[in-house]
Amino acid sequence: MKFCRRGPIRAQVSKEVAVLLVVALLSIGGGESRKGRILVDESIEYTAISCRGHSASLTDFGGVGDGKTSNTKAIKAAIDNLSQYASDGGAQLYVPAGKWLTGSFSLTSHFTLYLHKDAVLLASQDMNEWPVLKPLPSYGRGRDAAGGRFTSLVFGTNLTDVVITGDNGTIDGQGAFWWSKFHGGKLKYTRPYLIEVMFSDNVQISNLTLLNSPSWNVHPVYSSNILVQGITIIAPVKSPNTDGINPVSGDDCVAVKSGWDEYGIAFGWPTKQLIIRRLTCISPYSAVIALGSEMSGGIQDVRAEDIVAINTESGVRIKTAVGRGGYVKDIYVQRMTMHTMKWVFLMNGNYKAHADNNYDPNALPVIQGINYRDMVAENVSMAARLEGISGDPFTNICVSNVTIGMAAKSKKVKWMCTDVAGITSGVTPQPCDSLPNQGSEKITTCEFPTDSLPIDNVEFKKCTYRMSSARTLLRV
């Protein structure tokens, strides 16, 4: 299995208290058993960027949590009804315990979707419940096919102030249905993601388990002030393109992108000021953090720290190619611990997948200002494979205070470097000549910013709601 676990940017308290009053009626004559209905009050507490003035349960709109009945219409009716409160304190839709089969649905602004700890949003396998969208303008086509893409299970565009959270409730994409069609070449459109928001601002995605996504799991694109925390992502190791988080993740736990070739260059929206903290990743065929390969709009100021990687192909990977244009610069990674890796550092300037044949062969990417510090790795096959582009080297690479323990059957060449330039200090084993050692007195050379970004200053509120639901009680 591939596994990604994301810890919170700040400590978060999320709990649920269920109160069930059961009255047993004993018949003197030993009488009969009867079923009755009682109202059960459930109190939920969690922290979020916003609390809401109104709340309703999915069952209020005819939802049925049996895992068989489609709830697509019920969910859409609930969101449509609750949208009337957007300017009156906002609204929350509560998904109780149960398996809630559904196709794609769209959220509204000033809205919270909350999943009970035993709630499962179960992705429908009826393709009629998945509308098709145009390709992303910065991509020009779908990732799986030249056409459009199926709408994500939980979708939203042009939103503000949205919370998707729970007490570790589950969103199950039932991905095997889609993976089979993908491998069989039976899809005209790109597979859906689990959660996607576009052109949106102030969005929190937290305290959920994402299971078996058809493709990418969390995809915020053309959006700002996005907070993802307390997310567990699980998918089989060989599931195709089930990247964990793609801000614009088996596959990469966090994949940072910004557009593909000429389409990304023309759209020109960079990914900037991204913070990745307290991440645990298991992905034997992919990276913990991947930058690119679709980076034509530019990637800048990515800060990653306190990362654990276990049985993962590479720690940090930069992917690009001639024709991409754009840039990857000002990348900072510190305090990373790795166990059983193929590579610790990987850079590829020859990642040749292109959107089409209309890319500009003179559009060369700029890769510079890459900083890695304070890392420990063990059981590693090869310390680094750094391959720049001839005539367009990757520059200003800095590696300091890094100890890499090689595996018993490691590669004879510990570092492979072509068309790269930079410095190192306090690095074991000895790096390649193009990254000359500056001596142990320069061990803190590589930068890591000390200033805070706006997302660091998010203030959470404690939200409390009481929900009533009817349950069956066996009376004796």
TrEMBL record:
Entry-linked SUPFAM superfamilies: Pectin lyase-like (SSF51126)
Signal sequence bounds: 1-33
Pfam families per record: Glyco_hydro_28
GO MF assignments: polygalacturonase activity
Transmembrane segments: none
GO-annotated biological processes: carbohydrate metabolic process
InterPro entries in the record: GH28_Enzymes, Glyco_hydro_28, Pectin_lyas_fold, Pectin_lyase_fold/virulence
Localization, UniProt: Secreted, Cell wall
Main location class: secreted
Keyword Metal-binding included in the entry's annotation: no
Keyword field: Cell wall, Glycosidase, Hydrolase, Secreted, Signal
PANTHER family xref list: PECTIN LYASE-LIKE SUPERFAMILY PROTEIN (PTHR31339:SF50), PECTIN LYASE-RELATED (PTHR31339)
Family: Belongs to the glycosyl hydrolase 28 family.
Protein's UniProt name: Pectate lyase superfamily protein domain-containing protein
UniProt organism field: Carpinus fangiana
Taxonomic lineage: Eukaryota, Viridiplantae, Streptophyta, Embryophyta, Tracheophyta
